[in-house]
Write a structure and sequence with these properties.
Shape of chain A: globular
Structural class of chain A: alpha/beta
Distance between the termini of chain A: 34 Å
Distance between the termini of chain B: 26 Å
Largest sheet of chain B: 6 strands, mixed, barrel
Helix content of chain B: 55-70%
Number of helices of chain A: 8
Strand content of chain A: 25-35%
Number of domains of chain A: 1
CATH class of chain A: Alpha Beta
Shape of chain B: elongated
Number of strands of chain B: 10
Number of strands of chain A: 10
Helix content of chain A: 25-40%
Number of domains of chain B: 2
Number of helices of chain B: 13
Largest interface: A-B, 26 and 22 residues
CATH topology of chain A: Rossmann fold
Radius of gyration of chain B: 33 Å
Strand order of the largest sheet of chain A: 6-7-8-3-9-10
Radius of gyration of chain A: 18 Å
Largest sheet of chain A: 6 strands, mixed
Strand order of the largest sheet of chain B: 2-3-8-5-7-6
Order of helices and strands of chain B: HHEHEEHEHEHEEEHEHEHHHHH
Oligomer: heterodimer
CATH superfamily of chain A: P-loop containing nucleotide triphosphate hydrolases
CATH architecture of chain A: 3-Layer(aba) Sandwich
Strand content of chain B: 15-25%
């Protein structure tokens, strides 16, 4: 469960003037939810995701993950949370280019301090439909295939929470649809999925939408409401 | 992350960028190779010098007393010899100084003309007591050495070196033949075994020995000596003997403070070490230069690592996202730097040992590899990698993963 209370994030610009990326954000995301954070660029949705993903720390406010206040955690502690409790899926895939698909999938287990489970990595690649691509270098794979490798990597340490930042942004609509179906499947298995996008079609896969505007949550709607609004429009 | 995983990761990264890795290793490799070669060749030369020196003086286990104060160092010569050392001094030292097993007397000269019929050669001439030759490990190839009877009887006999035999008696057996030393006739009693060359490369075989008594009474007509050689009971501790001899001679010569000694004592081992130490100093200076070259190799590693860190921002971002802490990233880059430097050091040691052996063979030395120095050089290369890798590793660890993932 993600609990966020009065979260604020202020950046220093290059010239020293402060920018308030998050003004006052409060929300609760329950385990097993599929939530999208939507908003125009520069509204603070990426900042919110980075804080949820423990890549960034809030200036003020509280962030509790499974009841644990992680707002003041050290780099070491946050790294461990990223490693074991969160899986990231990025718009630009962020794979290591000159290594194989299997090696990319194994990467999170290297930082877990346990022996690398190659069979598990291969099973995950099979799971995302890339059994025959396991030993290919990343540069030999298409965009859709690369993103599926990234999803397999996100699953390597069995995290309960997946964070996807514009996962279809660099893909054509067919490949994008495949990725969204895969995420829907993973949600069906009980994983919590937080998806950041500005794309309404992608957002429609989620059951709940947080609309961010000017560093605040402007609306918080369930998916059925969304459909009602859409059909009305 | 376990250490072996970091090491494997570092090896793989180095393997994937062969050109960069070789460039990083080059400076350290050259520095370590020079260091290894220099210390090895230096040590081989030092040992050779000591061996040659010992071969020249025959023994290290003595104290030599020469006339004149401390200012007349170097080889004695009869033309400048001060008449302060008497035969009686030698007898007194043998009788009164504990720690001295025996005493030999010498009256010598350089470049004295030795003739046989029409042949003439200039050689070193030593008037010596009979025990001197045994003390200095001279052996005859033919004939006999000078005997105590020869000393007693002031015999006009000579033992000649192989060079003198070659120059005066080509194709002829010298034993029993009459030669003239400074126009005094002598009969050749023995021919010495060759001792080869001294530290300067000049021959040690151009030499003639006659009884010291004969030299004193029949050749030079002088009752003073150029050297008294006292053999030590304990060669490792010459100091008490040196002090005792000094005290005895001062007393016998009636010298009271502040009067200075009219004689000089020296220990050939100390002299030999002094000579080889001069060469060691040179080696040390050169080795210092090689160490600085190794340090410059370290700065090359730092420079290339800094570039690599900039190029690998995204990789760093990815690793951070999947759970690498700042410490993990720091360790990864530090290990890479240490590994590349150690590999450079290993290559340098191999090169250096090879070069040292080649050089030694070429210069007819016995190859010596100073393994403690080789070990220290390898350790140095690892330390250099760690020290010069610290800043790039720190830079890598400080990279903000959010920026790195966005780029």
């Amino acid at each position: 469960m993600i609990e966020i209370e009065h979260l604020q994030k202020t950046y220093q610009r290059g010239d020293g003037t402060p920018v308030m990326a998050l003004q006052d954000v409060s929300c609760v995301i329950a385990d097993g939810e599929f939530v999208t954070i939507r908003g125009a660029s520069g509204t603070g949705k990426s900042t919110l995701m980075n804080i949820i993903g423990c890549l960034d720390t809030p200036t003020a406010g509280i962030y509790r993950l499974s009841g644990e206040d992680v707002s003041g955690y050290s780099d070491q502690q946050r790294s461990q949370i990223r490693n074991q409790r969160i899986g990231f899926i990025f718009q630009s895939f962020n794979l290591l280019a000159r290594t194989t698909a299997t090696e990319n999938v194994e990467l999170p287990s290297l930082y877990r301090g346990e022996a690398v489970d190659r069979d598990k990595a291969r099973a995950l690649l099979a799971r995302v439909g890339l059994a025959d691509r396991a030993d290919h270098f990343i540069s030999e794979l298409s965009g859709g295939e690369q993103q599926r490798v990234a999803i397999a990597r996100a699953l390597m340490n069995d995290p309960p929470l997946l964070l996807a930042d514009e996962p279809t942004g660099n893909l054509d609509s067919a490949a994008g649809a495949q990725i969204m179906e895969l995420l829907t499947e993973l949600h069906g298995e009980g994983r919590t999925i937080v998806l950041v996008t500005h794309d309404e079609e992608v957002a429609a896969y989620a059951r709940r939408e947080l609309l961010i505007r000017d560093g605040r949550i402007a609306t918080d709607r369930a998916q059925s409401t969304l459909h009602a609004v859409r059909s009305a429009g | 992350m376990p250490t072996f995983v970091i090491l494997r990761l570092a090896l793989r990264t180095l393997w994937r960028n062969p050109l960069r890795s070789v460039l990083m290793m080059l400076g350290v490799a050259i520095g370590i190779a020079s260091l290894t070669t220099l210390t090895s060749v230096g040590e081989a030369t030092k040992r050779q010098t000591l061996a040659e020196f010992k071969n020249m003086v025959g023994t290290f286990d003595v104290v030599n007393i020469s006339p004149g104060g401390g200012r007349t160092r170097g080889m004695p010569s009869l033309t400048t010899v001060e008449p302060t050392l008497k035969f009686t001094d030698a007898t007194a030292i043998a009788a009164q100084v504990p720690g001295v097993t025996q005493v030999a007397e010498v009256q010598n000269a350089f470049d004295i003309d030795v003739k046989y019929r029409d042949n003439t050669t200039a050689s070193a001439m030593y008037g010596i007591s009979a025990n001197w030759l045994q003390m200095h490990r001279y052996f005859v190839a033919a004939g006999n050495l000078i005997s105590p009877d020869d000393i007693q009887s002031l015999a006009r006999i000579a033992v000649i070196g192989p060079d003198v035999q070659r120059d005066l008696f080509p194709g002829e057996d010298p034993i029993g033949k009459q030669i003239r030393i400074g126009n005094v006739p002598f009969q050749v009693k023995g021919i010495l075994e060759s001792r080869g060359a001294g530290p300067g490369g000049s021959s040690l075989d151009n030499i003639v020995f006659i009884p010291v008594t004969t030299a004193s009474k029949r050749l030079f007509n002088r009752d003073y000596l150029t050297t008294i050689t006292a053999q030590l009971k304990d060669p490792d501790d010459p100091e008490p003997v040196i002090e005792a001899i000094t005290a005895l001679l001062r007393e016998r010569h009636g010298i009271v403070p502040p009067g200075e000694d009219d004689f000089t004592l020296s220990n050939p081992r100390a002299a030999a070490l002094q000579v080889s130490d001069v060469r060691s100093t040179l080696t040390t200076i050169l080795a210092g230069t090689a160490a600085i070259a190794t340090l410059i190799g370290g700065t090359v590693i730092m420079g290339l690592m800094l570039v690599a860190v900039s190029e690998r921002r995204r990789e760093i971002g990815v690793r951070r996202a999947v759970g690498a802490s700042r410490g993990d990233v720091l360790r990864q880059f530090l290990v890479e730097a240490a590994l590349v430097s150690a590999l450079g050091g290993l290559a340098g040691v191999s090169l250096g040992v090879g070069a040292a052996v080649l050089l030694a063979v070429q210069r007819a030395l016995v190859p010596v590899i100073v393994w403690p120095t080789v070990g220290a050089a390898l350790l140095l290369s690892i330390v250099i990698g760690l020290v010069f890798g610290l800043q790039p590793a720190w830079k890598a660890a400080r990279i903000d993963p959010i920026d790195a993932l966005r780029s």
